[in-house]
């Protein structure tokens, strides 16, 4: 199994809806994780990820 392209959601609620669709089978995805993190692209700074939810078959992460 290989990771797919990350999907950027506008809000935390949108990300959780995406996870719900994976859980219910509405989306044809093997699995997914909703992750929130602060990003400052101009400064090249990335905060620590906050794992919100996961569904389906996803590899184990440090946030689990």
Helix-strand blueprint:
Elements: H1 12-24, E1 31-36, E2 39-40, E3 45-46, E4 50-56
Antiparallel strand pairs: 1-4, 2-3
Strand content: 25-35%
Helix count, DSSP H or I runs of 4 or more residues? 1
Strand arrangement across the biggest beta sheet: 1-4
**CA radius of gyration:** 12 Å
The average pLDDT value, as a whole number, equals: 87
Q: Separation of termini?
A: 18 Å
Q: Quick one: how many beta strands?
A: 4
Helix content: 10-25%
Find the structural class using helix and strand composition.
alpha+beta
Question: Segments where pLDDT lies below 50 for 5+ residues?
Answer: none
Sheet having the most strands: 2 strands, antiparallel
Order of helices and strands: HEEEE
Shape: globular
Structural features:
4 strands; two-stranded antiparallel ribbon; alpha+beta; 64 residues; globular
Explain the overall architecture.
It is a single chain. With 64 residues, this protein is of the alpha+beta class. 20% of the residues lie in helices and 27% in strands. The protein is built from one helix and four strands; from the N terminus they run αββββ. The chain has one helix at residues 12-24; strands at 31-36, 39-40, 45-46, 50-56. The strands form two sheets. A two-stranded antiparallel ribbon has the order 1-4. The longest helix has 13 residues, at 12-24.
């Amino acid at each position: 199994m290989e990771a797919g392209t990350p999907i950027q959601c506008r809000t935390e609620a949108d990300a959780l809806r995406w996870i719900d669709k994976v859980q219910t089978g509405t989306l044809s995805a093997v699995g997914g994780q909703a992750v929130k993190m602060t990003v400052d692209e101009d400064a090249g700074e990335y905060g620590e990820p906050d794992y919100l939810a996961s569904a389906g078959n996803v590899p184990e992460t440090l946030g689990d």
